Amino acid sequence: MPIHEKSLIRPENLHEHESLVIDGIDVSGHWSTFIESRVVADYNEELEEEISALPGGEHIHRCWQCGSCTNSCTVNALNPEFNPRYWIYLIRMGMESELLRDKDIIWQCVSCNKCTYACPRDVFPEGVMKATSHWLEKKGHTPKSPSMHFDEIFTEQIVATGKIEESRTMRRFFQRTNQKLMQGWLIEMVKKMIGGLPVGLLARMGLATVIAPRTSNWSAASAAIQDYIDEKHDEQRRALKLQADK
Amino acid sequence: MTKKDKYQKVAYYPGCALEGTGHSYNRSTKAVGKKLGLDLVEVKNWNCCGAMEVKNIDPKIQTYLSSRVMSVAANEMDMDVVMAPCNGCYHNLKKAEYDLKNDEDSVAVVDKLSKKAGHKTYESGQVETIHALDWIKETIGEDGLRERVKNSLQGIKIANYYGCMYTRPRHIFPEKDQGPGSESTSKPHFMDDLLAAAGAENVEFPLKTACCGGAHTLSDSDTSTKLVLNILKAAKLAGAEVIATECPTCHSGLEMHQIRAAEVFGEKVEIKILYFTQLLGLALGLKPRKVGVHENVSDSMGFLKEKGLA
């Protein structure tokens, strides 16, 4: 399959003139389209190093730009702007301002790992996508993505109880991202679910929302995990030269 | 010891989803195991494997969480096989196994956390993690199933949907792609094999390992709905009446976004969604309630009655 990527020249850099004469030569119209010259001077030489310091980004230096990741990408098939190969290129070149143009979609990687499967260099592009979206958030270029909120709520619940209770995770997610809980399609789904369920299971599920299922003797593991998360968090902020927070 | 003998009695790791939205998968897996005379011993006091979320906070925490489950099975229960029907759990345990075999840092972190948590550190190789598909395929196999089928699935056209986590990334599944008899990561066939033995007609389905967008089912719902729509439509076009699933995240994703696609995009795709264990159970003569058909969000009862399975 050929690799389809978008044109490298952005529409705003293409200029057509209705009537223009230069040195006596008519250069009007489509056949004389001009491309605005572009100078990149704001390289961020630390960009690759910073992203390598975040989990998942460790192997970005192995990339040789074959494009297998973009070619196999699930999200790219829905949105051609979603281009892992290009972002890896920009990061390695240090072209931060170019990367920031796509800052609002990088988090949309669905972690299907098709890129990791296809990559001949073991770059683990899926991990690079996660590291890049974390970098964007940590540096304050983007607000926390809905996906990051979800990951945090999920992890908090595991640290607290050792297990996940799905409806609780869902409620907290809608709450934290300021969305209403009773979305139309969700109501439809709940109606269909309740329709066929036996009373016993409904009661058990209802109970699970009040008393979350938990792993017993979890407190030592919980504390150990939380310590490790905090330790890593501080380490990463140092690698990104950010002030210690809290 | 052959796999056939080794998998007769396994440590069963249902995972969080099978106690919630995927309860019908839990019920049908246990019912099928019982019917086939296989022994499931639930992992004592298990914890979440980290699903698809914890690795985004820190991958080594996920490795630790999965290693604790394997440690309990090996050190507290003296088991050498862990069976996980959920693709997410199966994937994470496999990944932890790979990391603990190949990455010193992971070993050090898991050791540190296990000691602090007060249990024995899991060492790679102590247990073998298998999927529910491996379990039935290796112990009973196609021939065994053919002998035991009471209600053949004959005349039912099925698209087998395996999802992402069962085959990708390749390196965490060293036993796959090993020639005849082994599972393929590009064209998986274990579910096809089992359902064909139960009499079903499998359709040529190109999206077997496509992604349902499960990781962003709530955080980027439109993307998930579009991905699920692709899967539903492709299965329909391939001539399938049923999509057979083997993962609670895929299954509930398909069910949920089938409804959402109709509600939000006005695209209604009529196709039944059932766990492969539900289909196998019905073929083995179990009643629909025994395999939790009533616990699915989508309603398949009318269809199953029509086909003489209910």
Helices, strands, pairings?
The complex is a heterodimer of chains A (246) and B (310).
Chain A: E1 14-15, E2 21-22, E3 25-26, E4 34-35, H1 47-52, H2 68-72, H3 74-78, H4 84-93, H5 96-100, H6 114-118, H7 125-138, H8 146-161, H9 166-176, H10 184-196, H11 199-210, H12 219-239
Antiparallel strand pairs in A: 1-4, 2-3
Helix pairs in contact in A: 8-9, 8-12
Chain B: H1 3-6, E1 9-12, H2 23-36, E2 39-42, H3 54-57, H4 59-76, E3 81-84, H5 87-102, H6 104-117, E4 128-131, H7 132-139, H8 141-148, E5 157-160, H9 190-197, E6 201-202, H10 221-237, E7 242-245, H11 248-264, E8 272-275, H12 276-283, H13 301-306
Helix pairs in contact in B: 2-12, 4-5, 4-6, 5-6, 7-9, 8-9, 10-11
Summarize the structure.
Chain A is mainly alpha-helical. Chain A has helices at residues 47-52, 68-72, 74-78, 84-93, 96-100, 114-118, 125-138, 146-161, 166-176, 184-196, 199-210, 219-239, and strands at residues 14-15, 21-22, 25-26, 34-35.
